[in-house]
């Protein structure tokens, strides 16, 4: 009986070995084939075969690196990050994996998180990429011209200059200074006739609105996925002879996953002597693992002394041609004193906003220089009236990466 059990055991073991050998997924076979596919740049086939090999028990560092590189070459940067991070689980200092995660993060516009990989890069790579511990990483200019179909609202001009610094590998600072000016008109009171007749009076009386701003935001990496943000925005607002010193504080927490990111934030502001509290929940998606298609959805609850309001903002962007992106945006819900982009932009016009939507294009002139052009249409309600009017805005910008 014991002899029979031994015969059955070794027969089953032999069959298992033969079956494993027949399926072709030995270490030597997988290594040879994936290397051949790598040499032929057959990226899709390499990914498919490599994942099947892993399912059949062949899982080694070189295989993971080849799959990750194939995903990188197909511009599925999110998938590549997943594969490279699996390499790091067994080899946490693998310089190749850290280098390509750094690149993928940059191509996904995750500049802050990309910085976490720098300390693991080789000295040759750091020198080649000119990476320094404290450095300016970017700068840009933006200008906007706004015009409305209401005679009581003059043209508006807005300009800003912004710059970004990196301190070490995990802290980034964004700064901006801006100027805003507009002339607002009111109808002159009627002048009673007399003798001698009074001199002619202009029908409209103008009031100048000038605004100067300074914005500073710090972003700190807590882990490879978690970030904390804090910002301060000061606004000097001059409306005729009235002066307002407006201040806004922002704090946020962001999680970056695979193909998505989540952010929750709060803003506390004093705008033209009005206290404003705003709370945002934001979801970002890049379903293709790159920036060829992306969306950002933001839900906002805002509290003011005279009540609360809800707004929803949707951004949808896609790559329409090599180096050209098209992006649409819409903001639903009425608002006064709305804050956007981590408190960078403050919509504090005296006229209530009923609708805002626009279209922008981004053109990569060089790998380090991007041109932006945009159009925005806003429907507003003239202050203290029920009269609606339309404001059109044309915006242009130029940004550099250092």
Provide structural commentary.
With 402 residues, the protein is an alpha+beta fold. It folds into 2 domains: 20-128, Serine Threonine Protein Phosphatase 5, Tetratricopeptide repeat (Alpha Horseshoe), CATH 1.25.40.10; 134-189 and 199-401, monomeric porin ompg (Porin), CATH 2.40.160. It contains 8 helices and 16 strands. It has helices at residues 2-22, 27-39, 43-55, 61-73, 77-90, 95-107, 111-114, 123-128; strands at 134-148, 153-167, 171-187, 204-221, 226-239, 242-256, 260-271, 274-285, 293-304, 307-321, 324-332, 338-340, 345-347, 352-366, 369-381, 388-401. Strands 1-2-3-4-5-6-7-8-9-10-11-14-15-16 form a 14-stranded antiparallel β-barrel. Helix 2 packs antiparallel against helix 3 and helix 5 runs antiparallel to helix 6 (95-107). The longest helix is centred in the first third of the chain and has 21 residues, at 2-22. The relative contact order is 0.09. The model is unreliable at 18-22 (pLDDT under 50).
């Amino acid at each position: 009986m014991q002899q029979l059990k031994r015969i059955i055991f070794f027969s089953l073991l032999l069959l298992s070995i033969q079956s494993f050998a027949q399926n072709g997924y030995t270490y030597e076979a997988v290594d040879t084939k994936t290397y051949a596919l790598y040499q032929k740049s057959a990226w899709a086939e390499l990914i498919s075969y490599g994942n099947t090999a892993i399912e059949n028990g062949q899982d080694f560092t070189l295989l993971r690196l080849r799959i990750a590189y194939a995903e990188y070459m197909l511009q599925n940067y999110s998938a590549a990050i997943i594969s490279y991070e699996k390499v790091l689980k067994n080899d946490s200092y693998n310089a190749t994996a850290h280098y390509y995660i750094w690149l993928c993060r940059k191509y996904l516009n995750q500049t802050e998180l990309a910085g976490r990989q720098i300390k693991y890069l080789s000295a040759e790579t750091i020198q080649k990429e000119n990476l320094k511990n404290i450095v300016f990483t970017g700068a840009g200019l933006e200008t906007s011209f706004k015009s409305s179909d209401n005679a009581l609202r003059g043209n508006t001009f807005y300009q800003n200059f912004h710059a970004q610094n990196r301190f070490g590998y995990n802290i980034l600072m964004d700064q901006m200074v801006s100027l805003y000016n507009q002339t607002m008109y009111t109808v002159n009171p009627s002048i009673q006739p007399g003798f001698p007749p009074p001199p002619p009076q202009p029908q409209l009386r103008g009031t100048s609105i000038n605004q100067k701003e300074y914005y500073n935001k710090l972003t700190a990496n807590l882990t490879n996925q978690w970030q904390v943000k804090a910002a301060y925005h000061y606004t000097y607002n001059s409306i005729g002879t009235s002066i307002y010193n407006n201040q806004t504080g922002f704090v946020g927490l962001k999680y970056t996953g695979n193909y998505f990111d989540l952010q929750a934030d709060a803003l506390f502001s004093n705008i033209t002597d009005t206290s404003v509290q705003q709370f945002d929940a934001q979801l970002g998606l890049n379903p293709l693992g790159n920036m060829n298609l992306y969306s950002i959805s933001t839900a906002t609850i805002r509290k003011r002394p005279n009540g609360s309001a809800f707004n929803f903002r949707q951004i949808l962007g896609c790559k329409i041609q090599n180096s050209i992106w098209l992006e649409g945006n819409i903001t639903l819900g009425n608002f006064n004193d709305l804050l956007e982009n981590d408190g960078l932009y403050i919509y504090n016009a005296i006229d209530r906003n009923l609708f805002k939507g626009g279209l922008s294009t981004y053109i990569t002139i060089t790998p380090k220089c991007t041109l932006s052009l945009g159009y925005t249409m806003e429907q507003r309600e003239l202050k203290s009236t029920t009269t609606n009017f339309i404001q059109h805005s044309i915006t242009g910008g130029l940004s550099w990466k250092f």
